[in-house]
Known about the structure:
mainly alpha; 4 domains; two-stranded antiparallel sheet; 31 helices; 6 strands; globular
Amino acid sequence: MGEFSKIEIKILDRLTEVVDGRLESIGYDNSEKDRMLYSTCINDIEKDKLTKKEIKKLQKKIAKCNSNIAGYISAFLNKYELEHHDGDFYSYRERICRNFISNYYEGIEQLAEEYLTAEKVEQENEFYFEAVFNDELYSFDNKEIDEFIKYMALAERLSKFISILESVEEEKKKPKVEVIIDKMKANAKERESKKTKDELSDALDNLRGQQISSVQLFKIIKDITKLEKDALEYLKDDIGWYLWSMKTAQECFYSKEQTERAYKKIEEKYSKEKQLELGYLKKTKFFFEEEYEDPEEPIYIDKEKLLFPNEFTSIKELITIIDKELNKLESISVENKTNNVKPDMYSQYNNDINEEVLLVEELEKRLAIEAVEYKKNCDDLWETYTFDPKYFDTYISGDLYNVFFKSIYEKIKPLNDFEINKYLTLSVNQFKTHTPTKRAEAFKRIYHDTYWYPNYMEYNPNQYENKYPVHVWKHYTNHFHLFKEASENMLKDFKKGLIGNGRKQEVIEKPKTKAKSKHQSFTYKKWQFESTNLTYLKESLIDKNLIASDTELKHFRKAFSGETIEKPIVWTGNISELSYFIKQLHNELKLVEDLKQQQWAVTINCFIQENGEQYNRTKLRTQKVPATSKNIDMALKTL
């Protein structure tokens, strides 16, 4: 076999990312399920029993793995090997995955023939490498790779349960006084975390004295209310109370002398009529939306206009935007809602154009939209529409099937052969992963969200209304094979050169542009109400010489806003410190939204080296825990 070339090593890195990424995703799901399991336990004794029970179950499952995989699982479970790897669990897991994938050197060599440089491999879309394992053109044993991932995930879960059991046993050895003190501290911390915070007041305090754009203010309102009518009305009342009470309090900060001195300057400059026109003098007062005349003060000085004219501008704009949204909701008639169901519901998937919706996903969404429209017609226009139990049997095998075929040709028409192959290959693979049995629950949720769009309604998987989407799904299940076979035939026709740009699959040209990730930056989970924490994080990182001292706050905040960044942050620490910072921020503490394995792509977009060069994604994710990890832990506590 010999040594791998640079291109082959880069391909090995990308394939390892796919396998390790799948393990990371499975591990995340398992963690959530295990937390749920522990939450059902009444006391520590039940938790102890549950832990031991799960360990035995996992040991039995792992014992069934074949001999080709057993050696890797044994190495992964060997805690002494992990200690030799400096205790860095993630890099050790990746090393095991890399060693396993390196056995498929023939497939790696085949892939290497398609690339001229290692940089081209680095730029390739990650979805392509996921599809490679399923492509018969390359020498990869997809079944064995799936088995490896399955048993590695079981082993990872087993190691976590063993770790929990060992920590419990260690806890039992502690003196009773220490245990009592630790529990008291934990209870105090838990009580503190359960205290209700007035997040709205904090958010409004943050807006005071700032000129915020209407778009950003609309986003705040939308995030809080989901633009539901009742929520908008409650929010408007709350903001009204805040505005009235804070304006009253703000006026008390100024003495009579300060007010008179400020008014004297206005009096010298403008006539009484002009002062009334500009708002420095007023004849009527407001209590929320109620306007009234005060006989004891027919004309009075508006202290807000005189002393703090911009203090509450953005907060008043919030009320203006809320009124506009309430007027919109009020103006929509029942007839318009019924007639415009399909266009409105399609609009919620507008962004899917950029996210490359594959064939099965598009099928599910089209079916959900039709199901909602048909139900609303039957409910609202019952004199015209009568529910037909066989309607979807006819619709799916007829209209939907025809639209499906047409949409494929429309989708691939502007693409080159490489892009067509990738799109059809990924879609055909999706028919294997998104079977009706596996997607039944997911479709209920898609139907629910489509039905309530654009409003938000909490989903209840056990509600009575789910009987209808189950009925629809039953007919979809009966005809699923038609769409699957059509997609497979389409891919076969393409590879024969019957469709596409007239070239055989063997001479496919690489795309000239790299597919962009939809994630441009991290999204801080507390951005809405505690974004000031980012100021503290920035100062802490500067104090610890981890980012450039001249980093501007506006650029730093952008890196955690979920939006496109204006200027990347200069990381002055070493690469292992940045790697540890991201692993703690995203993987362990979960302080930012889950990026679905895209955290390293986002990292190299948000942070650059001191010399202005971009970081290498593979090197970043494989770094060991740095000696300065405690400094980073302290900085992250500001969030």
